[in-house]
């Protein structure tokens, strides 16, 4: 019998002050304390939440080693709130820069740091590719870590699920300019639908925390969400800064029954896909 899943998840949709790490950490702290006061088990924050996104010229000043001052502050925030905390950061490692996601336990212990595996467009000029699909064991279950563009690649999500991920988190900053939005209809509705598809095709929980606001002429698209294994949207934030919380209470027999109906992974025919 599959064990049930019972926990409280939160996604935080926040604007970021570009290059102002202190201000961003203060905002993360406020949202984390709000989550802790509502007995949230895990709160997920956007991509580059500590620094802002368009920072390529300032990476030498903003990127820090693992367990540097920003990690230490995030550790304190997680411990004070008493929650698992996942946040998008930027890391300096071996003379190279990485778009990263870090997760802490309620005791403040850093459980894992993940480096973004798929870099979009000009990100490749600033960051190195991460090469390690990361699934971390926590008291809440096995959590697969992803950042933004990773979600575009279904094989990558499935790799995390095949490694045992029960929840896949995504710290993101889906953005669009007026051309993308007005001509092609690129929107947060699209990215939310993609998150729902990833949850449905893998039979896992997906929690996506997107940014809001505007930076360098690009709108961050919002629509942060928490998705059930069926693709059902349990909680979402269409626009603006906010926190969305969902109570996850799936009985083992219900998970088994759903997965006996939605046999998508079992029905794959990889021999036909090359």
UniProtKB/TrEMBL annotation:
Pfam families: CN_hydrolase. InterPro entries: Aliph_Amidase/BUP, C-N_Hydrolase, C-N_Hydrolase_sf, UPF0012_CS. GO terms for molecular function: hydrolase activity. The keyword Repeat does not apply. Keywords: Hydrolase. It comes from the Bacteria. Residues 7-250 form the CN hydrolase domain. Belongs to the carbon-nitrogen hydrolase superfamily. NIT1/NIT2 family. PANTHER family: BETA-UREIDOPROPIONASE, NITRILASE C965.09-RELATED. This is Carbon-nitrogen hydrolase family protein. It comes from Sneathiella sedimenti.
């Amino acid at each position: 019998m599959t064990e049930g899943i019972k926990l409280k998840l939160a996604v935080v949709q926040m604007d970021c002050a570009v290059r102002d790490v202190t201000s961003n950490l203060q905002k993360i702290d406020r949202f984390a304390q709000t989550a802790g006061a509502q007995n949230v088990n895990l709160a997920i924050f956007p991509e580059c939440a500590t620094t802002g996104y368009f920072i390529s010229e300032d990476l030498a000043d903003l990127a820090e080693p693992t367990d540097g001052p920003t990690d230490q502050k995030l550790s304190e925030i997680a411990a004070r709130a008493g929650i698992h905390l996942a946040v998008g950061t930027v890391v300096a490692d071996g003379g190279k820069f990485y778009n990263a996601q870090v997760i802490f336990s309620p005791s403040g212990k850093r459980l894992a740091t993940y480096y973004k595996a798929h870099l979009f467009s000009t990100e490749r000029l600033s960051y190195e590719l991460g090469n390690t699909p990361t699934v971390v064991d926590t008291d809440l279950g096995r959590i697969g870590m992803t950042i933004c563009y990773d979600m575009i690649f279904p094989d990558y999500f499935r790799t995390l699920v095949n490694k045992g991920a029960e929840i896949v988190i995504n710290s993101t900053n889906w953005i669009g300019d007026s051309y993308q939005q007005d001509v092609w209809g690129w929107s947060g509705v699209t990215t939310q639908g993609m998150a729902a598809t990833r949850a449905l095709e893998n039979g896992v929980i997906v929690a996506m925390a997107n940014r809001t606001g505007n930076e360098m002429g690009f709108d961050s698209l919002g629509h942060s969400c928490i998705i059930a294994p069926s693709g059902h949207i349990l909680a979402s934030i269409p626009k603006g800064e906010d926190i969305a919380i969902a109570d996850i209470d799936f009985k083992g027999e219900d998970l088994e029954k759903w997965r006996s109906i939605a046999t998508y992974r079992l029905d794959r025919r990889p021999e036909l896909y090359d």
